[in-house]
Amino acid sequence: MKKTVCFLAILSLVAIIDFGECLNCYTCSSMAEPDCLDPVKHNMATHECQTFYSPGVAKQDSNPVLNCVKIVAKVGDTELLTRGCTLVIDNVDICANMRGENKAIINCSLCDTNGCNA
Predict the structure, then answer these.
(1) What is the pLDDT at residue 30?
(2) Given 3-state DSSP classes, what are the helix, strand and coil percentages for the chain, each rounded to the nearest 5?
(3) What parts of the sequence cross the membrane (predicted)?
(4) Of 1, 92, 103, 105, which shows the fewest CB atoms inside 10 Å?
(5) Residue 27 lies in a domain
(6) What angle do CA 35, 108, 83 make, to 5 degrees?
């Protein structure tokens, strides 16, 4: 009887432990999907950020840190909005780098909770 109670206690504990979740972000571009301008209003789904490996950018990590990103850029007379996932790289401000390289970037923001790049 003690073994059964102990087993059930352990099973209950395992059932409530959070083993980690992947980050879910909105991933779209207003150029291809006009609903991307307001994904919440249009009931767009978030997507799980996938881990990736890019040689020369970051070492392969079994548990990389990911952020959601929202970028507004001006191309000609048109403002474009892009939402997606990005890898967090130590000591690199991706938004600052993008603004420095491309004067078309109006706004770039990073966040780290599900659906935060709405």
Answers:
(1) 94
(2) 25, 30, 50
(3) none
(4) 1
(5) yes
(6) 30
